[in-house]
Specification:
Radius of gyration: 17 Å
CATH topology: Arc Repressor Mutant, subunit A
Order of helices and strands: EEHHHEEH
Number of strands: 4
Structural class: alpha+beta
Number of helices: 4
């Protein structure tokens, strides 16, 4: 069955998609940017760059990071970050639902070939 992948182009210049949203969800689950990066098999620098890109894109932090120390650092999603994830997933569900009939028809065309 075909699947739908969603990317949202935002003004002035930037976009969000499943990769950035997955990263935010992993940060929320792991409590750490570095742990989320390891889970997703990406470098810490790449994860940090994506977080910084999203912070700039939304004009406010989507992740609050605490500097390491004796107890170690950590990271949590800000209310803005939680809202971004929630809204993206809602849009994704709506798009998938709206496209379901067409996706089924597309698969039927593939199978008829």
């Amino acid at each position: 069955m075909p699947t739908l992948s969603l990317r949202i182009n935002l003004d002035p210049a930037g976009r969000i998609g499943p990769g950035k949203i997955d990263l935010l969800e992993e940060i929320a689950a792991c409590g750490s940017i570095s742990a989320a990066a390891r889970t997703m098999k990406m470098s810490y620098k790449r994860a940090w760059d994506l977080v910084e890109e999203m912070n700039r894109l939304f004009g406010k932090p989507v992740v609050a990071a605490q500097v390491g120390g004796r107890r170690g650092g950590g990271a949590t999603l800000t209310p803005a970050g939680l809202a971004v994830v929630r809204r993206f997933r809602a849009i994704e569900r709506a798009a998938t639902s709206a496209a379901a009939r067409h996706m089924t028809a597309l698969q039927a065309e593939i199978e008829a070939a």
